[in-house]
């Protein structure tokens, strides 16, 4: 039973990720994403036109996914994402904004590295100018 519940939970999380991606793309955002599990499911869910037009691109790793981006949106709790190299990310991102959908980062630590931090559910997220 635990295995089945784990599979259902992972599928639920993948569905949430897919819905977030769809909302961003439908708002005309260009999305670069990396998630070892969800991106395979997402590949099945999205029209090929999203990939061909550049609205959605899956990257080989988490650092490629933030290159030349306006913001990082964290929606998963994989160990890979728990202690990122914020300095490396700051050197490659256009704007230093983090939306932490899992509230796994220390807001002070992230802010000390120059990022604007928004913990989703931990505070009201105000409009952010890109």
From TrEMBL:
InterPro entries: UDP-Glc/GDP-Man_DH_C (IPR014027), UDP-Glc/GDP-Man_DH_C_sf (IPR036220)
Every UDP-glucose/GDP-mannose dehydrogenase C-terminal domain range: 15-107
Membrane-spanning residues: none
A Pfam family matched in the record: UDPG_MGDP_dh_C
SMART domains, per the entry: UDPG_MGDP_dh_C
GO terms of molecular function: NAD binding; oxidoreductase activity, acting on the CH-OH group of donors, NAD or NADP as acceptor
Record's protein name: UDP-glucose 6-dehydrogenase
Native organism: Desulfobacula toluolica (strain DSM 7467 / Tol2)
